[in-house]
Amino acid sequence: MKNVQISKELFVKLIKYHHFEKYEFEDEIKTELEKKLNSMVMREHYTEYKTAPTESEREEARKKYLDEKGVPERFRW
């Protein structure tokens, strides 16, 4: 299983939330975890684009990556 790195600030907020019941950090934690998840998904698409065994799979992964990035069709090659 792979590891995921998070910022020290997020780690401290998670500890405070779970161990000290400081629930005022809930929205910040959700936001930061969503950003991290989106980053991981984008990296997965990019890696698939670069390492796919066939040209059609690479093209499909490239399209997914650019769609997720929000790049309009007219700016794509």
What is the topology?
Blueprint: H1 8-19, H2 26-51, H3 55-69
Notes on the protein architecture:
The chain is an all-alpha fold. The chain has one domain (8-75). It has three helices and no strands. It has helices spanning 8-19, 26-51, 55-69. Helix 1 packs across helix 2 (26-51). The radius of gyration is 17 Å and the shape is elongated.
Mean pLDDT equals 94
User: What general outline do the C-alpha atoms trace?
Assistant: elongated
Query: Please, how many domains?
Result: 1
| Structural class by sheet pairing and helices | mainly alpha
Main sheet summary? none
Number of helices in the DSSP assignment: 3
Number of strands: 0
Order of helix and strand elements from N to C terminus: HHH
Intertermini distance: 36 Å
| Helical coverage, percent range | 55-70%
C-alpha Rg, in Å? 17 Å
**Segments where pLDDT lies below 50 for 5+ residues?**
none
Q: Descriptors for this entry?
A:
mainly alpha; 77 residues; elongated; 69% helix
Summarize the model shown.
By secondary structure, the protein is mainly α.
